[in-house]
Amino acid sequence: MTVSEPEQNLELLRRRVLANLSNRTSSGLAKVRLHNVEMEQVQIYKMLENTIKFNEGKSCLVIGPRGSGKTTMVNNALLDLQERFPNMFYVIRISGFYQSDDKSAIKEIARQLDWHLLRHSGNWNVSFERFSANETMNSVMSVLDGSQLMEGKDQNGDNDEMQMPIIFVIDELDRYTNDAKQTLLYNLFDVAQSSSNSHAVAVIGLTTVTGVREQLEKRVKSRFSQRVIQLTKPRQLAEFCDNVYCMISVDPDDFDPLMFDLAQKYNAHMKMLLGGPSELRKLVVHNFYTVKDLNILKSQLTPYIAKMDMTTFSGGPIINVNTNNRSFQILQSLSELELKLVICAGRQLLKNSMDQVNFNIAYEEFEKISSSQTNTLNSQLQTMGRVKLDSAHHSRDLMLACWERLIYYGLLVEPIRQINGINSSFYTGGESNKMFHLDVTVEDVARLFRHKDWVTKWCRI
Question: Which keywords does UniProt give here (predicted)?
Fold first, then answer.
């Protein structure tokens, strides 16, 4: 049975949308469309372009929560560079998840260098991997700092493959800060800082830990280029919907003229579903107010698009996925005082239209509410002829300890502030004055603990 051309066009459109949803962002084999990170991607592109064109060694940290697009953004920049400078640089990827210590990481670097050289030159005699980790480290570093390059050039006269710029992409960089000496990070940052005219190295570190720069050892930090790029998850539902639309829409210019109108019609229909009452809108809103995870949403949208009737654009079934928000799980394990501090911090953010809060502000709200509730209770007891109660007083040091535990749990996230691309100091007179982002809202707490009367009263503004 032959398939008509219109049906082929509809299936091509479906496959293109499914490709957007199923692209493996960690592989870096194909570009993945992202929303609202164009400026950050241009910064990465320009830095790496200077490394390739002008042998300019740089290092950079990309910080953001999981699912914010860190790896995808770097991969998109690398793919753009590969199109413009084909076979003119090497990319070495390591991850703190898989290469958990310096020894395994340096062996993986040597293995990837061997593969790149073999692919470009076909020379089986060159190998950087040695029997011991220390010898492997010396072998790799002798190439990166240029000492072995000059010797090879004298002997062979043609070592262009070994002189190519090398770009290191280190995922979960914070795991390499646990080592006391941080040897791997020190050597890579040092080589990137001292890149000579004959060789260039760029290092990009990806991490979810906001304060990772403070975890770097002093000598490592001195060799870091102080360039930090921070990504955040969408804070508003409209911005989150724009991210979803970017995932499920297509670029009409990628199709031939016969399918241009069809692609535009599909995009308009998807935008209408996201903006008005629909099952798709309901799914997106539920995800935003629970886990705010685009990866989970991709898993749910894949069968929706796969079973979609492409003639009417009516969607298929939506699979319910168990979404347990880590922050909600932490909230359920908090003590009463810690939970009250979270509520007070959220109240101050709402009342004063702020996006950051410190301990002093939250503690002031805590004392105000506690005093108000004690006065209300005493007035009721006085009406009944009962003895007044003394107000329950919790020391400031005790509440500060609770605040520090909230930071440790990750409910309070320290933002990164930059001046001319360099991190500015957050110290403004004491730990109690440090500003933090709150990872949950008062509405989240009230909804999670709706069966507790005291939580409902404290959340009421």
Answer: DNA replication, DNA-binding, Nucleus
Per the domain annotation, does 274 fall within a domain?
Answer: no
In CATH, what number is assigned to the domain containing residue 435?
Answer: 1.10.10
pLDDT of 345 reads: 92
Asked if residue 50 belongs to a domain, the reply is yes
Range of the domain at 84: 38-230
Exposure letters 71-101 (e unless 16+ CB within 10 A, then b): bbbbbbbbebbeeeeeeebbbbbbbbeebee
- Of residues 184, 15, 205, the one with CA closest to residue 102: 184
Residues 224 and 94 in one domain: yes
State residue 271's pLDDT score.
Answer: 92
Look at residues 198, 230, 262 and tell me which one is the last residue of a structural domain: 230
Q: Could you tell me if residue 217 is inside a domain?
A: yes
Residue 280, domain member (yes or no): no
Q: Are residues 46 and 193 in the same domain?
A: yes
pLDDT digits over 307-346, tens only? 888 777 776 666 665 555 667 778 888 888 999 999 999 9
- Ranges under pLDDT 50 in the chain: 1-3, 147-158, 418-428
Please state whether beta strands 437-438 and 412-413 pair in parallel, antiparallel, or not at all (unpaired).
antiparallel
